[in-house]
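Sequence in, structure out. Go.
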Amino acid sequence: QVQLVESGGGLVQAGDSLRLSCAASGSTFSTYSVGWFRQAPGKEREFVAAIRRTGHTYYVDSVKGRFTISRDNAKTTVYLQMESLRPEDTAVYYCAAGSGIILSSIASARQYPHWGQGTQVTVSS
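Output:
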């Protein structure tokens, strides 16, 4: 099993930035694809960004140019740098990991067997 712990959420104003961290256990971290998902009250879980073991990255259109996902395999940590935050970015953000995630399903939450507990991001206007 893999343990994932998110951190870095908080309350900010529109236009501010935050960096979320997803710390993972296990010596096979470098083999995982890692994704960030978010869920606002009353809404379905939404894909935000993902990074494959190759370092290739993927984003939902609404965050392209504002969010950057990266990984530090030596620290077994994935980051989500969020810039120019908007009120509509308010949600609980979850990181998820899995091995063998195929490219065509990189944005599908069902493909990720390991999940963290989430961290709250609130953006006020």
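Check: The two ends are 40 Å apart (CA to CA). The chain has a mean pLDDT of 95.
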